Every structure is written in structure tokens, then in C-alpha cells.
Amino acid sequence: MPRLQSAAELEKLRADILASRDPAKPCIAVCAGAACDGLDSAAVAAAFLAEADKQKLGGKLEVRTTGCHGYCEKGPNVVVTPGEICYFEVQPKDVPEIIAATLKGEVVERLVYHDPGTGAKAVHMNEVPFYKHQTRLLIGDNPKIDPMRIDDYLAVGGYAALVKALSTMTPDQVLDEVKKANLRGRGGGGFPAGSKWETTKNAPEKTKYVIVNGHEGESAAFMDRAMLTGNPHKILEGLIIGAYAIGAQKGFMYTRHDMPLLEKHVRNALAQAAEYGLLGKNILGSGFDFECELHFDVGIFVSGESSALMRSIEGNPPEPRPKYIRTSVSGIWDKPSNLNNVETWANVPQIISKGADWFTSIGSEKSKGTKLISLSGHVVNSGVVEVPMGTPLRTLVFDIGGGVRDGKTLKAIHFGGAMGGSIPADLIDAPLDFDGMSKLGAPIGAGGLLLMDEDTDMVEVARYLMDFLTKESCGKCVPCREGMPQMLHILTNLTEGKGKPDDLERLEDLAEVTGLGSLCALGKTSADPLKSMFRYFKPEYESRITGGSGDKK
Amino acid sequence: MCDKNIDSIIEKYRGQPGSLIHALVEIQHENHWLPREVMHRVADALQVPFAQVMQIASFYKTFSLTPKGRHEVHVCTGMTCHLRGAPKLLEKVEELTGLKPGETDAESRFTLDTGACLGSCSIGPELIVDGKHYGRMTPDKAEDVLKSYE
């Protein structure tokens, strides 16, 4: 494939790809997301390919291995187009039946969704309860794309936003559009991406960097890797557009080293983009040069923190530094470095394509667009979910999530992983919103939502989270390194029924000092779960001290 | 493990001090641990002080300074796995292997590790052996899984 020299050449290529494909030709998409992969979806995909080969169906049917479809609970997932017929928990032995039905335009009734209560069937994706309450702007393309093929991304309109930005907009116009869209960072803080871009853009140094933070260390958050593994070009397109707006010459993708499929897809996407001329010198004849490098976290939670992550890219230990000068002004090798989360970058192409007005029409007053949520814990339907900001938690938990497992009642909703917070079940009508959730003490964080059922021991949850963070501290700030083990010690005593009367007071003291005396978010917010517990579940803690090991044991 | 592979990784990054982590990650993936002698060679080739190599190798959890067993057994201790029963699973795996997390047995059959989170939360609790995921694991099933690894 020779490099594309202009926007027109890319559009011609897209037209050729679309012309060579017959939309009526059935396509069987087998999910290879993290959960389906763990359920051996590879064997299902292999069975489809073998059967199609055996019956010589090359011209009549396509088999595609894709990224995460979303409904992880019922994996391995298979979606047949046209019609988006969803089959769940598919095994290799089901393959001949699905192929036979697909060729006849029929449906294998026993493999479609059945409502656990009423037994009612749902055949098409837009009828399945898990999917029908979602707005799948970002992850909706996953079943249509083989992440190893850039042509699949082009076929769904990929890189059209890049073409638009490079050929019809100045960098300032791109920046203005993102600012107008009020795109807020999806990694945890909810900081406006446009302002951050502007800071880097206006920084005096000529050399500037842009970074995709795909570290996703937050426990029980798995939507970023679903995006990055399932549709890597979307994130790359956002990054290139951002680099153009900011004036950066080089980008870094920073992600996990322990997901072989993720690494393979991202490496391949970078190589294909370079081959097509979407990376490198003079991209699409615009005069804009940009290259991108892949970096890996090496297994420590704190390296997801922006300044620590940048140290890690430089090849140093990931120790955060004070932020009186922001990384957007002085980051990697002291150059201005703009870092955004995977999901933030993934939003950029659609903002450029469809405009800020369209984007701001979705979501709540101060939080625009959709949000990817990893739904897990004691929930019936776990998986990756995408809903407009402002959606009530009730919709997420009950309409999409199907409620609590094993017929139990909901006790708490936990957001934001180890540095998040838990709110009680009676706040379930709160809307999903950056500011609203922060006020309640359960900030969205990256978007990991966990349900906890009636039997959950909240003291044990706090102990578990503190145990996790204690092991992840880099050790630079003493209050973090030493404060957390003290809190862990007290919490462990509480769970063992050895609590003392002044323990809760001491925990509050330690929480305050650790928060004040630490440089980065890990230490600063390490006691946030504990604070939310004291706010909503304090009687449970008090009864542990007066009543020994509590009523659970 | 063949020394030639380590040599070629070191050669690839010769003279590039900024690539220290890349080089160590590749060697770790290839060899499953970092022998001291190899780290000395990395230090020489990349022109970084040995102390810095040690700093990186001992700081990041991915790197192992001791040899690992033939099979790496990993129990996910992420939040969902924890809520869904990982502590009991870990207890059973510890009992079956006679190991605590981080340890390798005398026959070098297993190395046991824990960690969060591998993102397959929907199928937790999870046991992962040599990268192969065993989802929705129970303490009873764990015994059968481990038996199949010699």
C-alpha cells in the first residue's frame, strides 16, 4: 500500500473499500474482548473459520474477530449482520447451526437473549435490555471492526474527522471546537480537555508531546482496554487531531504490558497508519508531521498518574513530582506534554466530524457526551456500558445491569476504584455526572461502577482497598508511604474484632494528614473510600468496635 | 531460554539509555527473570550505571530478580474478583501449591502471584496460568486446573 498523499486519495480509498463490500453479505462477528477471550472465544472463532472453509463459504459469508461488544457477562458473544442478531454464550458446537441459519436468513432461537423473568426473547441488538438503554457512540463500532484491519475502520467512516481537520480547519479552529464541546477528561478528574490543550499549545517550547493514557490501573475498570483493543484507530485518530491542534510533533501511547492482544492491536494499528501515511511526514499532503511511539507500564498503579507516567516514558522510576508547574507546560524531558485518557481521545473524532453543537446536545448541563462505564461486582449483567452523562444510576444498575445477583438487595454502589467512594442504595436516583457524583463522595473516576449486595462487609471493603493502595505507593511522600500502612493496620484490627474506642478518630486524623501531605492523587485520595464510608456507613464501623468482629461472622 | 535472544534484545537498544525499561521488559518477557549478569550487560550496552538498572528492576513489579517456576499461576485480586470470592480461591491455591504470593516451589513447578486487575471482571474470580484465563473459578475447580500443569 503506497502512502496516501492527499485527503482525496483517502476518500477514494474509502469509496473503493465500500464498493468492494456487499452490505447484504452476512457477517459473523465473534467477540475477542478480555472476558470473551477468557471464556475461549478464540475456539469459537476458529470453529467458524473452519466450518466456513469446509463448506467453501468464502463468497457467501464473512467471519470477523472483533473487540469487546460490551455484554461480557454472556460471553462468548456473537453478532450476525445484517440485523445485528445477538447470540450469547456461544460454544464451538453451536457453530454449524448458526452458519446454517445465517445462510437461510433465519435465527437460532435457543441462543438469543431470553428474559430471566418472563422468558421473552430478544433477537436484535436494539431489543436486548442490556443494549437498548445505551447510547453507543464510542463502543458501538466494535462489532463492525476487525481491530487488525485499518480498512474496517475506514469503512465505518474512520479518519474522516482527520481529513476534515487537516484540510478545512486551522489548528485554532480545531482547538475552539473541542473547547466549545466542553469535552471533559475521562480519566478521573473531569478537567476540560480544551483548556489543557490550550496550555500546551501556548507553552513557549517548540517541541511538544501528546500522550494517550491507557494505563487503566483502576481496579474493576476495563472499558479503556475494550476501546483500545477493539478500535485502536479511533484513539489514534483523536490523538493525531489533538497533536495538530496543539502543534505537537510526537505522541506516546502508554498502556498495559500484560494484555497481549492489546499490544498486538496497537502495534499493528501504528504500523498500518504509518503505511497509509496517516503518521509520519506531511500527513495527507497537509504539511503536518507527526509520529507515535508505544510505551508500557511495568506493573505499578502509580505510573498512571500523569507526572509519574512521564517519568516512566523517560525510562525512570515513576515517581510523581509537585505540580506547581503543570505537565502540560513541563512534562516529558521538560517539554510541554498534553496527556489525556483513552476515552477522551476517542471522543475527539466525532466532535470534529459532527461539531460541538451536536456533542453538547448529549449529556447533562456540565458533563457533555457519553461515558463508558465498566459495570461489575454483584451485578447480574456485567460488561462495558455507554450512556449519556446525566443518566440516572438506576438505569445503569437495573435497566442495563439487571439488578443484583442471586436475588439479593443492593447495599451500596461504588465508583472510581481504590480511590473512589461508596454511596448507599437509596441514592440510586442520582444522575451520572462528574460534579454531582463528586459531591456525593463517589467521584466517577475512570468509570468503574461496582454493585455491592446486602452481605457486603463495608469495613472489609475499606480494608481491601487500603491494602491495595499500600502496595502501590511509590514511597516518595512519607505520609503516603507510612500513613496508609497505619490506616491498614487499624482497619485490619477492626475486621478482626480488635478495634479500640478511639480508632475511628485516629483513622480520620490519618486520612487528613495523608491527604494533605502527599504529592499525587494516590496519596491525596487514598482515604476517599474511607471518608465515604464514614459519611454513609459509620454505624457499621462503630458497631464493629462495640460489638467485636460484627454480626457477619 | 537461549542467550542469543537476550543478546539481540541488548544489541537492539545499545547506546540508548532512554530505552532501559523497554530492554528490561523484553528480557523479562523472554527469560521470565533478570539474572544479575544480564543486568550488568544491559548497563554496559545502554551506558547507564548499574545502580540505575537495579533501581528500575527492583521498583517495578513486573521484573523478577529471582528465577520463576515453569508455570506462572496468577490469582486476580481485583475488586470484582475480591467481591466474588477471590480470597477463598487464593487460600485454596496457596494450599494446593504450598506457596504464598511471590514464592516459587523447590521443584520450580509453580510461581504464585496475585495482582489487580486484568479487566476480565465479568468472569471473576479468575485463575490465570501461563497467560491462559480460567474464569468463574471455584476452589474445587482450581485443583483440576493446576493438576494439568506439570
What does it look like?
With 553 residues, chain A is α/β, with parallel strands linked by helices. Chain A has 4 domains: 25-144, Glutaredoxin; 158-360, Rossmann fold (3-Layer(aba) Sandwich), CATH 3.40.50.11540; 370-453, Roll (Ubiquitin-like (UB roll)), CATH 3.10.20; 458-546, de novo design (two linked rop proteins) (Up-down Bundle), CATH 1.20.1440. Helix content of chain A is 42%, strand content 13%. Chain A has helices spanning 7-19, 34-38, 41-54, 95-104, 129-132, 150-155, 160-168, 171-180, 193-202, 223-230, 232-246, 260-275, 306-314, 342-354, 356-360, 393-400, 434-440, 458-472, 478-495, 503-516, 521-524, 528-536, 538-546; strands at 27-31, 62-66, 78-81, 85-87, 113-114, 121-122, 209-214, 250-255, 291-296, 337-341, 370-377, 383-388, 410-415, 421-424, 448-453. In chain A, a hairpin with a 6-residue loop joins strand 5 and strand 6. In chain A, helix 10 (223-230) crosses helix 11 (232-246). The radius of gyration of chain A is 24 Å and the shape is globular. The model of chain A is unreliable at 549-553 (pLDDT under 50). Chain B is α+β, with helices and mostly antiparallel strands. Chain B has 2 domains: 3-59, Arc Repressor Mutant, subunit A (Orthogonal Bundle), CATH 1.10.10; 71-147, Glutaredoxin (3-Layer(aba) Sandwich), CATH 3.40.30.10. Chain B has helices at residues 3-12, 20-31, 36-46, 50-59, 79-83, 86-97, 139-147, and strands at 71-76, 110-115, 127-129, 132-134. In chain B, strands 2-1-3-4 form a 4-stranded mixed β-sheet, covered by helices on one side. In chain B, helix 3 (36-46) packs across helix 4 (50-59) and helix 6 (86-97) runs parallel beside helix 7 (139-147). The longest helix of chain B has 12 residues, at 20-31. The mean pLDDT of chain B is 91. The A-B interface holds A 34-35, 37-39, 72-73, 75, 216, 218-222, 225-226, 257-260, 295-296, 298-300, 312, 314-317, 374, 376-378, 382-383, 414, 417-418, 448, 450, 452, 456, 464-465, 468, 474 and B 17-22, 24-25, 55-56, 59-63, 77-80, 82-84, 115-124, 126, 131, 133-135.
